[in-house]
Amino acid sequence: MRDNRRQIVDDLLGVLRSHELATLWTSFESGSALIAEVERIAVELPDASAVNDLTVLFAPTGVLQDVALDSGFHDEYVLLADRHDKVQD
Questions:
Q1: 61 contacts: CB under 8 Å, gap ≥ 6
Q2: What is the distance between the alpha carbons of residues 80 and 89, in angstroms, rounded to a whole number?
Q3: Which of 5, 15, 33, 38 could crosslink 28 through cysteines, CB 3.0-4.6 Å?
């Protein structure tokens, strides 16, 4: 079975919800705000602007990577980012 963006977002939300999120170096005021943004993207998929917003979050040295490094789930982030880079739906 091939990955799709919705599966990746659902898995991402699971990871985000299971960690205390350090968002100090991001534009998000809190972990809850970051989760709310990913939830918004999930609702709006497969809209092109939601796909773009997700791609920006997954960008190297972007929000998700910074939060993952500071929150202790960088290995999980790398796996999700790799899946995101390969998705073709």
A1: none
A2: 16
A3: 33
